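Issue 218. Parser rejects a valid record. Input:
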Amino acid sequence: MEPIQSLGKMVLLMGVLLLVIGGLMMGFGKIFNFGKLPGDIHMQKGNLTVYFPIGTMIVISLLLTILANLFFRR
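Output the parser choked on:
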């Protein structure tokens, strides 16, 4: 197989994976109310809105760490 075909398949796979992850995030956002967890910082002053999803990032990091350990453990 030529290198360009291999690269094309990899890019296509990454695109499909991003679509799936994006869909799951949209669905979980409605179900589990991600983005409004304790620890998420939301500041609004006039036309400026700043949002730091620290609590959400911690929860997602823990979930991905657990999944990675389950699937990639040797």
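Fixed in the parser; the record now loads. Residues 12 and 51 are 32 Å apart (CA to CA).
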